[in-house]
Design brief:
By secondary structure, this protein is of the alpha+beta class. The strands form 4 sheets. Strands 5-8-9-10-11-12 form a 6-stranded mixed β-sheet. Strands 1-4-3 form a 3-stranded antiparallel β-sheet, with no helix packed on it. Strands 2-7-6 form a 3-stranded antiparallel β-sheet.
Length: 194
């Protein structure tokens, strides 16, 4: 059930209170959209991808990947949440992460107030494809550089770079790369989708 709020966004305190009381939700265009339970197959793919990303990027000091972490969009003040997203996985470059920690010494006690460089969405059988497309458009409006859309049922990964029109479709036999965002990172589609 989608809940339409009467004002665009809410205070960070209200966001965290509602999250605790009602469970995880995304805040998109003033609507609170509850996040459904993730199917374990999708969680496995997200975790496997996070492991591969972190195994490659952490020793090189490039950045870090996270699974099902919330990031929020704020207005002029970091205490007013105008949007919230929960991608299946996300990646943040190290220099951006370091700047964020310095600017936000209390970063551990609140949602991430930083747009990731890469987000990953894993399509479930019950996902509505027009909603997935809208979500990708929102990610680019938010400032995300790349969106990796993984469709386990059809064994397809679509990589969007910069906008929804600049895409590359990967199938079994192809290799997912980090492009300019994670130079040198590679994983075979067949390996990721097992």
């Amino acid at each position: 059930m989608v809940i339409k709020d009467t004002v665009e966004g809410m205070s960070l305190d209200d966001f965290m209170r509602l999250w605790d009381e009602e469970g995880p939700f995304e805040l998109i265009d003033g609507e609170r959209i509850p996040v459904p339970t993730k199917m374990f197959g999708n969680v496995k793919i997200a975790n496997d991808l996070m492991l591969h990303l972190n195994t490659y990027t952490l020793p090189k000091g490039l950045g870090k990947a996270y699974v099902e972490a919330t990031f929020v969009l704020t207005m002029d003040t970091p205490n007013w949440v105008k949007g919230a997203r929960i991608p299946d996985a996300m990646y943040v470059r190290a220099e951006r992460w370091a700047e964020y920690q310095v600017a936000n010494p209390d970063w551990e006690s609140k949602p991430l107030i930083l747009v990731p460089d890469i987000v990953v969405e894993i399509v479930s059988e019950n996902d509505d494809y027009p909603d997935v497309t809208k979500k990708i458009i929102h990610y680019f409006k938010d400032g995300v550089q790349q969106v990796w859309l993984i469709e386990p049922q059809s064994r397809v990964i679509t990589v969007y770079v910069g906008n929804i029109k600049n895409l590359k479709t990967l199938l079994d036999g192809d290799v997912l790369t980090g492009g300019d965002t994670i130079p040198g990172f590679e994983i075979a589609v067949s390996e990721l989708l097992g």
